[in-house]
Amino acid sequence: MSTARRRITPAERRARLVRRHLLAPSFRTKTPEEIADALVALHATDPATVYLSFAARCAEPEVAALERALYQERTLARIRCMRRTVFILPHGLAPVAYAATARSLAAKQRTQTAHQLHAACGWDERRYAAVEAATLAALAQRGAAGAAELAADVPELREQIVTFPGKPYQSRQRLSAPVLGVLAAEGRIRRARPLGSWTSAQFRWAPADPLPHLPAGEAKTELARRYVAAFGPVTVEDLKWWTGWNLTDTRRALAATGAEQVALDEGTGYLLPEDTDDRGPAADVEPAAALLPGLDPTAMGWRHRDWYLDPEHKKALFDRNGNIGPTVWWHGRIIGAWAQRRDGRLTWEPLAARPDRTARAAVEAEIARLTTFLGPTRVTPCYRTPLERRLAG
């Protein structure tokens, strides 16, 4: 006799989100490693996102703590993986994410770059290999270096090619960009400290420790398990979107986790077997506010978002490419947006009905907390959204 699937309501999902994604004071942690582990990975396309995601979830956030984890102790790793996007992950999870999402893409990138260099510069495989070897030797000698410094050591990296010839977005770039891009995609070099402050998008490069070779199937199962544990319940579409896998690989990896079906408003969802007890993380949590940055992993964690975001508000919060801007959360739901003005002042605006006094007070307290963290630093999101632009003035 069949058993009816357990139903999980949007309210229960929001309570899970607050607890697991550390969006209430009682759940905040002390270290960036704990935060990265809770969220699987921190979105790092915009360097400031990493620090602001950390600040929102840490009891006493300090820039130095995150820099220490990234650049001194290296307990966190910055790699390009899911959806060809740069993320920061716990060091031990980086090889899993690479094998599950990036290794096959890196091979394609190498082939494409080799063809590009042959067509534009006449480089054959031997010449390409010699330039890579010289680049790695120069980097080993320097320890860490920016692209311009490496181009000073390896003359071939200073050569320029035209990208996207004949297109409206045609441009010229140094060969350092594609050569270093392939080495980074293959995990042979890593992003070290930025050339400027923690908001800078220009990084030095450094030699990387070799990544262990993990079987792709096992890695996909482990990455899917970690995602479902942190974001569940999720749909097949959620997992496919978050990883960038095709539908076949998504279904295969999800099945291998042993995830069990539950009923959601969107249709069939999945939870890990140990995560179906009503007494678990879905228990009631205290109402709490959070200020999350653009591209935060919580806001970008699901393909289906209606249970925490009113569909009518998507146009104001997202750019044309689907990147979300800074958001204000209350009890697991997006209720507004925030921005930093040129004078450093933080401002916010609710999206619908005016929040009650308790919610407004909690948001203002978070604004004060973030203001203290930022100090004199000015942050402009890499991807501007309509409401963020207006609030920033």
Helix content: 40-55%
Count the helices. How many? 14
Low-pLDDT runs of 5+ residues are none
Rg calc: 22 Å
What share of the residues does DSSP label as strand, in percent?
Answer: 15-25%
Number of strands: 13
From the N-terminal CA to the C-terminal CA, the straight-line distance is 62 Å
Task: Please summarize the sheet with the most strands.
Answer: 4 strands, antiparallel
Structural class comes to alpha+beta
Mean pLDDT metric: 94
Q: Order of helices and strands, N to C?
A: HHEHHEEHHHEEHEEHHHEEEHEEEHH
Strand line-up across the major sheet: 10-11-12-13
Coarse shape:
globular
InterPro entries: AlkZ-like
Organism: Streptomyces noursei (Streptomyces albulus)
Protein name: Winged helix DNA-binding domain-containing protein
Characterise the protein shown here.
- With about 400 residues, this protein is of the alpha+beta class.
- It has a domain at about 95-205.
- Helices cover about 40% and strands about 15% of the residues.
- The chain is built from 14 helices and 13 strands.
- It has helices at about 10-20, 30-40, 45-55, 65-70, 95-120, 125-140, 145-155, 175-185, 215-230, 235-245, 245-255, 315, 355-375, 385-390; strands spanning about 40-45, 75-80, 85-90, 160-165, 170-175, 190-195, 205, 260-265, 265-270, 290, 325-330, 335-340, 345-350.
- The strands form five sheets. The chain has a four-stranded antiparallel sheet. Strands 1-3-2 form a three-stranded antiparallel sheet, with helices on both faces.
- Helix 5 packs across helix 9 (about 215-230), helix 9 (about 215-230) crosses helix 11 (about 245-255) and helix 10 (about 235-245) crosses helix 11.
- It is globular.
- The termini are far apart.
- The model has no long low-confidence stretch (mean pLDDT about 95).
- InterPro entries: AlkZ-like.
- This is Winged helix DNA-binding domain-containing protein.
